[in-house]
Amino acid sequence: MASVPRARRYVRDLLDTAGHRQADDALLLVSELVANSVRHSDSGRHPGGRVTVAVAKHDATIRIDVIDAGSPERSPSLRAGTDPGSCTGRGLWLVDELASEWGWHDTPAGRVVWFQLAGS
């Protein structure tokens, strides 16, 4: 899953330049969302699939979008009763716990899962 380290490096380089205080949280959440895209979307199931990461900063808040081909069978949702100690199934739980806001929406090109981290 080479996509995850590549996405982390990209976001780390941008946030280091911007000096954002929550870079560690952002890197963790990007890792989780890109891994979910590769595992659960058509981007990861079909040859040549793409996952795109977009980063925007407004004042002290950063917003990160993870864009993939989506999946007609699955939509992002929090699992009920997520075990924080589990090794799997915690991606969106972590996003929900750490992000100041998050959500998802479908577009004609696929799906966007996004989160925001407010700086202090």
Automatic annotation (TrEMBL):
It holds the Pfam family HATPase_c_2. This is ATP-binding protein. Residues 2-116 form the Histidine kinase/HSP90-like ATPase domain. It comes from Planomonospora corallina. GO terms for molecular function: ATP binding. CDD domains: HATPase_RsbW-like (cd16936). Keywords: ATP-binding, Kinase, Nucleotide-binding, Serine/threonine-protein kinase, Transferase. InterPro entries: Anti-sigma-factor_SerPK, HATPase_C_sf, HATPase_dom. Gene3D superfamilies: Histidine kinase-like ATPase, C-terminal domain (3.30.565.10).
